[in-house]
């Protein structure tokens, strides 16, 4: 397996040097080198991204991967998570607070949360940002005829009131522990009523195809869209009306560089300042750490690499047997995979909740662990009635080979992990077929959610978003237009109860007990096989000043402080 997976540093270096020497797919920075630009030249930062922003609004049901910091730069909510994962006010004056009376637990079991919008809040076209926009957004988000993500928490909302232009109150039918993250990138960013109301009321069929979502996007972020060249670049300009003040940087160019080696070549050549999303794996991070003196590489845990199990129409049906899944998990040397693929930068994951999450210390002892034990794995599989034939492959009582498909996302880490897992399972005697999801099917929701056996991809390390993978209400089905976060379409009534209770239990001690119950069920039944925590790398040129990369998980904005960025002349 090591031979299969390890990419020697010398090969990585030769790829990078070759990319640097060849005509690179690099962003256009004008005819004048940066160091020779006159002092009056606009302050520019170039960010490399692997793909276009499919849309600039995450809650649209679009699944083609794009670097999420593109949305962060152009759109901000009433609050956003800072680099430590704590939500801070942006468009709002303050966060809802029980002490301040803006977060109320009512005697009848309901709840109210109130936000006060900053008087100087504006959309990027100059229109006032008001409570009417927030109320309009919730109406649109809860409309099943619109292609917006239908989140389970919406069922807990009784109504949204806008008593005056700067005040918005949500009346909840029951408590919700993360109500203060509403109207943020985490949960439904507000939409401009003055630009979208007509489409929502008169032409829902064309809603998803409006130019608003791409080249005509109007948000609230520190930068606004100036140019949108599909497959090439996106140019953003400083938003003079940004509620936290005009950014120091005048212009940001998003250079679309799909090839990770070309991204590295651009970094080493000095034509790219930042790489904040996908494209930099552990191998490339090591190369940059050794060879790049003009910048630095920052690391954080962004989630985990996991294997989702299919629970509806699975083929073979045996993948839904928990004993079979336990055997498969014990047959994988996850530590070796982590050592090879991410150079041991992150540990093996026994649960999706990341070690950087504040709740991790509360659940660590509740996790059921399955350490590497190929002998025990073989015994469990034999106990299910499978025996190895002359070819070394397992067969059932009807002499049918035990064959499974493992699909993976097209990312390098996912593909290499898939090959490593397949190699481990073949050593157990399982006939494994690995399939990479083709780019042309990346938006085919039915294809994505009806894989026959297993799918290898990333998993959030956060509780709120991670729990979506286990709630039966989140199962993508034809009747809900394949919308939902439960990729395996797993259903466990006991777990559903625990997840629902968790989100409505405000007292910390009781909430921790419920969380431990949910974690124990998930790690015991392993509907998702966790492999290792996934590192994410931020590449930052020294010329970019005041950029503080996040250390928290995926909820934290990579560009929280974009308005404070500056460039060294």
Structure explained in plain terms:
The structure is a single chain. This protein is α+β, with helices and mostly antiparallel strands. It folds into three domains: about 1-25 and about 40-75 and about 210-300 and about 535-565, Periplasmic binding protein-like II (D-Maltodextrin-Binding Protein, domain 2); about 90-195, Dipeptide-binding Protein, Domain 1 (Dipeptide-binding Protein, domain 1, Alpha-Beta Complex), CATH 3.90.76; about 300-535, Dipeptide-binding Protein, domain 3, CATH 3.10.105. It has helices at about 1-5, 10-20, 70-75, 130-140, 195-200, 260-270, 280-290, 320-330, 335-340, 360-365, 375-385, 410-430, 445-450, 465, 495-505, 510-525, and strands spanning about 45-50, 80, 85-90, 105, 110-115, 155-165, 165-170, 225-230, 235-240, 250-255, 275, 295-310, 385-390, 395, 405-410, 430-435, 455-460, 530-540, 545, 565. The strands form five sheets. The chain has a ten-stranded mixed beta sheet, with helices on both faces. The protein has a four-stranded antiparallel beta sheet with strand order 4-5-7-6, covered by helices on one side. Strands 2-3 form a two-stranded antiparallel sheet. Helix 2 crosses helix 6, helix 4 runs parallel beside helix 5 and helix 15 runs antiparallel to helix 16 (about 510-525). The chain is globular and about 75 Å long. About 45% of the residues are buried. Mean pLDDT is about 90; it is low at about 1-30.
Give a brief outline of the structure:
By secondary structure, the chain is α+β, with helices and mostly antiparallel strands. It is about 25% helix and about 20% strand. The protein folds into 3 domains: about 1-25 and about 40-75 and about 210-300 and about 535-565, D-Maltodextrin-Binding Protein, domain 2, CATH 3.40.190.10; about 90-195, Dipeptide-binding Protein, Domain 1 (Dipeptide-binding Protein, domain 1, Alpha-Beta Complex), CATH 3.90.76.10; about 300-535, Roll (Dipeptide-binding Protein, domain 3), CATH 3.10.105.10.
